[in-house]
């Protein structure tokens, strides 16, 4: 996470030169961003990030040597001691790309379409750099639809902190898993948005999860929520 006075350090990883240089140029046009390096493959992205420790990585999925999913897994899961893992924004051509879901499981904080507008790109990088997940409610609902088509994982177990959740926190987690935004959850429970944010923060801390994207995945993959039932198991 960066302070307001420190530019957000970004690495752009894409094997297409036009996409790579285009996104880099756009980001460098903003005072609060600095593109520290670019990469042409997943393997190079991992090496570069180890060297420059960026705050955010724009990561293509289909790249040579190592794809963006494995690169994300390595960056998020094995950062050197004392070094925060970068936030990863997946770049994809289609919002229902079959690989997007694997990338989110690998630890990505969200995804962007390559046809994204400049303003949307800027907002997305700022959102994930601040520690939030970039999954609009509509995208979360599509993610849930994908989980509904998948068989339950027999090896999936609830995070150790699941039993530590209060009844209200479990209720909030179930609503997050349904794809509701914080304002929508607040309206459903008749509480303020700030109260919802506090509950979500506590849920993530207790479950040792990075963001609400991972909370949605955990809720469905561990069977806490069964698609269509919205009831805890």
From TrEMBL:
The keyword tRNA processing does not apply. The modification 4-aspartylphosphate is found at residue 60. Residues 158-223 form the HTH luxR-type domain. CDD domains: LuxR_C_like, REC_NarL-like. PROSITE patterns: HTH_LUXR_1, HTH_LUXR_2, RESPONSE_REGULATORY. The keyword DNA-binding applies. Gene3D superfamilies: 3.40.50.2300. Keywords: DNA-binding, Phosphoprotein, Transcription, Transcription regulation. PANTHER family: TRANSCRIPTIONAL REGULATORY PROTEIN NARL-RELATED, TWO-COMPONENT RESPONSE REGULATOR. This is Response regulator transcription factor.
């Amino acid at each position: 996470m960066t302070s307001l006075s420190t530019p957000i350090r970004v690495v752009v990883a894409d094997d297409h030169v036009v996409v790579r240089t285009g996104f880099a140029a756009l980001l460098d046009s903003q005072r609060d961003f600095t593109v520290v390096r670019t990469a042409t493959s997943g393997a190079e992205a991992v090496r570069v990030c180890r060297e420059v420790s960026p705050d955010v990585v724009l990561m293509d999925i289909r790249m040579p040597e190592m794809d963006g999913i494995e690169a994300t897994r390595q960056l998020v899961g094995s950062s050197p001691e004392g070094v925060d893992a970068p936030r990863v924004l997946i770049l994809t051509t289609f919002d229902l790309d079959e690989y997007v879901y694997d990338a989110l499981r690998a630890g990505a904080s969200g995804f962007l379409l390559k046809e994204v507008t400049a303003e949307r790109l800027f907002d997305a990088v700022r959102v994930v750099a601040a520690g939030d997940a970039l999954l609009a409610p509509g995208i979360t609902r599509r993610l849930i639809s994908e989980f509904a088509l998948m068989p339950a994982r027999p090896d999936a177990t609830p995070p150790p902190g699941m039993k530590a959740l209060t009844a209200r926190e479990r209720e909030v987690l179930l609503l997050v898993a349904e794809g509701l935004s914080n304002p929508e959850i607040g309206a459903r429970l008749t509480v303020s948005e700030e109260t919802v944010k506090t509950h979500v923060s506590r849920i993530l801390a207790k479950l040792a999860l990075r963001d609400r994207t991972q909370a949605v995945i955990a809720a469905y993959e561990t069977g806490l929520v069964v698609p269509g039932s919205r009831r805890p198991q």
